[in-house]
Amino acid sequence: MTTNIPLLINGQEEHTPSTFSVISPYTNEQCWTSSSATPQDAIRAVEAADAAFPAWSQTKPTTRRDLLLKAADLLEQRLEQNAEYMRTEMGADVGASQGFVVPLAIRMLRDVAGRITSICGSVPVVEAEGQRAMVLKEAMGVILGIVPWNAPYVFGIRSAACALAAGNTTILKSSELTPRCYWAIGRAFEDAGLPAGCLNIIHCRPTDAADVVNAMIEHPAVRKINFTGSTAVGRKIARSCGQNLKPCLMELGGKNSSIVCQDADLDTAVQGVLAGAFLNTLLTNALASGAHFISGSTPADVDATLPSGCGVRMAPAILGGVSEDMPVWQEEAFASVAACMTFDSEEEAVRLANGSGYGLSASVFTEDLRRGFALARRIQSG
After folding, report:
1. Label partner for 335 (CA 20 to 30 A): which of 26, 51, 197, 378?
2. Could you give the CA distance from residue 139 to residue 166 in angstroms, rounded to a whole number?
């Protein structure tokens, strides 16, 4: 019997008439199906979160802290199973899923829980004599989190836990590639005793995503949007938020540059670059434009060595002969591929690093600490 991943609305798991297939990259076949929300389902999730907000926002900080810690304990008890969901849905290996992403999400949840009691206001000094002022910090309301596939437990916990910790209620719109991972997060919070409606999980088919997301952004109860994903989709989200005068917090894609100086410890540099480039497993376009393999081969070459029916896995590849106008250099590629170029001066290295879109981070490998800091201050990243 095929497993169907339900929505989570107002504390209830819901299976919808409309579903979509979740394809495992290990087999290139369906691993399970997921319920697919309509805009009306999304609005019900917002209404559930809105109804739960007054009571949840008034809970004591220690109550919220203890509940988040219990959810972290449950995620830890289910670590192996949750990591298996991640490997099946997105193709991660044991080291990345069970040894890194899921444990990191659990640590993040406990860290957020420990900060709840430190949320407090202030008493500023005012200009007029005989007057005093107090600044209070209050929960905003319903927060919409739109989360990606590539580290589902980390992004799900970051989005949901931060909102809940501050007394908000929330909806997570999951990636259609990893709905079971996000379901697992919702299940842990529900089993920990989170009141119904405080956390709602919505999945939908890609063709319905724009209508589902816009229905929630446009709803008056949604007070803020938290989005992690591509720059192209981020522009659309920002446009909708602007039209509805709602604040949005975004983490968008971009290239992460590494500058390896001639005095660098190459063993350290190689390990750092490979870890950053190959953690998440586009290529034909770069080869057609003149790039060449330094290491690795095409997915077709790899698949030819595997048993029939194997999925879309590819061996790590490093490309040389890359130019600045190639998409593989300019755009974030969620595949096990890295592109490299050589440079003759620090000025050229900085220009190359800053020539593409902002990445989440950048690195400089050198044995000269002063040189490293000087280069780092010139790089536009983060």
Report:
1. 378
2. 6
Q: Kindly give the confidence (pLDDT) of every residue in the chain, 382 residues in length, as a single tens digit, with 9 standing for 90 and above.
A: 679 999 999 999 999 999 999 999 888 899 999 999 999 999 999 999 999 999 999 999 999 999 999 999 999 999 999 999 999 998 888 888 999 999 999 999 999 999 999 999 999 999 999 999 999 999 999 999 999 998 999 999 999 999 999 999 999 999 999 999 999 999 999 999 999 999 999 999 999 999 999 999 999 999 999 999 888 899 999 999 999 999 999 988 766 788 899 999 999 988 888 777 665 547 566 666 677 667 665 555 444 444 444 555 566 778 888 888 887 777 777 667 788 888 999 999 999 888 876 677 889 999 999 999 999 999 888 7
pTM above 0.90, yes or no: no
Task: Measure the CA–CA gap between 152 and 5, rounded to whole angstroms.
Answer: 15
Query: Is there a contact between 169 and 181 (Cβ–Cβ < 8 Å)?
Result: no
CA angle 353, 357, 361 (to 5 degrees): 65
How far apart, in whole angstroms, are the C-alpha atoms of residue 163 and residue 171? 10
